[in-house]
C-alpha cells in the first residue's frame, strides 16, 4: 500500500475521533438539530468558496437512486443516530463501537455486492457485539454515559449507515468525482437538518469558543475528514480503508481521557478488549489466503 493513502486514512481517523469530543462539548450549548445544521452550513460554505474545483457532473440515468441513498445514509441518518448516541453514552465508548465498521462493511458488501463473508468474519462480529453489550452494561449510569446501552445501540445503527455508505460511495466514485460527492453530502445535510435546527429556541448568547468548535466540526471534520477518507476509498479497497477505523477507539479513548477526564472501569476495559479481539478475529485472513500470501511472497 502506498504511503499517501496510509497518511490520509490515519489523519481522517484522528479527525473523526476528535469529533466525539467536540460534539460532547457543543451538545451542552445547542440542541442536536442546531449543532448538525450549523456544522453542515459551515461545510457547505467552504464548498461554495471552492466551487470551481468541483468539476462538471456527468449524470447517468438512474443514478438518482444511488445518490439519494448516499445522502440519506450520510450525513442524514448517520448524524441523527451518532449525535443522539452521544447524549446517552460516553465519547470513549462511542469510539469503541466505531471499531465494528470494518466487519459491517464486509456484511454490507456481501448483501449489496455479493462479496463472500467468511465464518471467521461472522465469529468476529459476534465476539465484538458481545463486547459492546458488556461495555454498555459494565457500569451504571454516570455523568458521561447516562444510558450507555441505548447510546451504544444508536452508535451501532450509525455504523451500519456508515458501512452501507462506504459501499455505495465506492460504486458512485467510478462516475463522479470525490469532491463532487463530498460537497453534495454537505448541501443535502444543510437542507435536511434545517427543520430540526429551528424547531427549538436558540441560546440568547454564543461564546466564541463554542463557535470555534462548530467551525472545526464543519470545516475540518465534515469537509476535511470526509474528503480524505473518500479520496482514500478511490485508491484502495473499501474493506481495507474501513479497517483503519480500528484507530478511532484508540484515538478517542486517549482524547476523552486527556480532554474530558473520562475513565473506564476494569470491566469496561475487558469489554473493550473483547471488541478489539472480535475485530481482529474477523479481519484475520483465512488459511487459504495466508497460504497464497506466503506462496506469492505477499
UniProtKB/TrEMBL annotation:
<feature type="transmembrane region" description="Helical">
    <location>
        <begin position="32"/>
        <end position="51"/>
    </location>
</feature>
<feature type="transmembrane region" description="Helical">
    <location>
        <begin position="241"/>
        <end position="260"/>
    </location>
</feature>
<feature type="transmembrane region" description="Helical">
    <location>
        <begin position="150"/>
        <end position="169"/>
    </location>
</feature>
<feature type="transmembrane region" description="Helical">
    <location>
        <begin position="176"/>
        <end position="200"/>
    </location>
</feature>
<dbReference type="GO" id="GO:0016020">
    <property type="term" value="C:membrane"/>
</dbReference>
<feature type="domain" description="EamA">
    <location>
        <begin position="6"/>
        <end position="135"/>
    </location>
</feature>
<feature type="transmembrane region" description="Helical">
    <location>
        <begin position="122"/>
        <end position="138"/>
    </location>
</feature>
<keyword id="KW-0812">Transmembrane</keyword>
<dbReference type="InterPro" id="IPR037185">
    <property type="entry name" value="EmrE-like"/>
</dbReference>
<feature type="transmembrane region" description="Helical">
    <location>
        <begin position="266"/>
        <end position="284"/>
    </location>
</feature>
<protein>
    <submittedName>
        <fullName>DMT family transporter</fullName>
    </submittedName>
</protein>
<feature type="transmembrane region" description="Helical">
    <location>
        <begin position="206"/>
        <end position="229"/>
    </location>
</feature>
<dbReference type="Pfam" id="PF00892">
    <property type="entry name" value="EamA"/>
</dbReference>
<comment type="similarity">
    <text>Belongs to the EamA transporter family.</text>
</comment>
<feature type="transmembrane region" description="Helical">
    <location>
        <begin position="93"/>
        <end position="113"/>
    </location>
</feature>
<keyword id="KW-0472">Membrane</keyword>
<dbReference type="InterPro" id="IPR050638">
    <property type="entry name" value="AA-Vitamin_Transporters"/>
</dbReference>
<dbReference type="InterPro" id="IPR000620">
    <property type="entry name" value="EamA_dom"/>
</dbReference>
<feature type="domain" description="EamA">
    <location>
        <begin position="151"/>
        <end position="280"/>
    </location>
</feature>
<keyword id="KW-1133">Transmembrane helix</keyword>
<feature type="transmembrane region" description="Helical">
    <location>
        <begin position="63"/>
        <end position="81"/>
    </location>
</feature>
Amino acid at each position: 500500500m502506498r504511503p499517501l493513502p496510509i497518511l490520509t486514512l490515519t489523519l481522517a481517523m484522528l479527525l473523526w475521533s476528535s469529533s466525539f469530543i467536540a460534539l460532547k462539548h457543543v451538545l451542552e450549548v445547542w440542541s442536536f438539530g442546531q449543532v448538525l445544521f450549523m456544522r453542515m452550513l459551515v461545510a457547505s460554505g467552504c464548498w461554495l468558496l471552492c466551487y470551481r474545483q468541483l468539476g462538471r457532473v456527468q449524470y447517468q440515468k438512474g443514478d438518482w437512486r444511488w445518490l439519494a441513498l448516499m445522502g440519506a445514509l450520510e450525513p442524514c441518518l448517520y448524524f441523527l443516530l451518532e449525535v443522539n448516541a452521544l447524549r446517552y453514552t460516553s465519547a470513549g465508548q462511542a469510539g469503541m463501537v466505531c471499531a465494528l465498521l470494518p466487519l459491517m462493511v464486509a456484511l454490507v458488501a456481501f448483501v449489496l455486492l455479493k462479496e463472500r463473508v467468511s465464518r471467521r468474519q461472522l465469529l468476529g462480529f459476534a465476539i465484538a457485539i458481545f463486547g459492546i453489550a458488556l461495555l454498555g452494561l459494565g457500569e451504571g449510569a454516570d455523568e458521561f454515559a447516562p444510558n450507555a446501552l441505548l447510546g451504544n445501540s444508536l452508535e451501532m445503527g450509525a455504523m451500519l449507515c456508515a458501512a452501507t455508505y462506504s459501499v455505495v460511495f465506492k460504486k458512485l466514485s467510478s462516475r463522479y468525482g470525490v469532491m463532487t460527492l463530498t460537497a453534495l453530502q454537505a448541501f443535502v445535510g444543510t437542507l435536511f437538518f434545517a427543520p430540526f435546527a429551528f424547531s427549538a429556541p436558540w441560546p440568547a448568547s454564543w461564546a466564541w469558543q463554542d463557535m470555534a468548535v462548530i467551525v472545526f466540526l464543519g470545516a475540518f471534520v465534515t469537509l476535511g475528514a470526509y474528503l480524505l477518507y473518500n479520496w482514500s476509498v478511490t485508491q484502495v479497497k473499501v474493506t481495507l480503508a474501513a479497517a483503519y477505523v480500528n484507530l478511532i477507539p484508540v484515538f478517542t479513548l486517549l482524547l476523552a481521557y486527556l480532554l474530558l477526564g473520562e475513565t473506564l472501569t476494569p470491566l469496561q476495559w475487558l469489554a473493550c478488549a473483547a471488541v478489539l479481539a472480535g475485530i481482529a478475529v474477523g479481519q484475520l485472513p483465512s488459511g487459504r489466503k495466508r497460504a497464497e500470501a506466503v506462496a506469492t511472497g505477499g
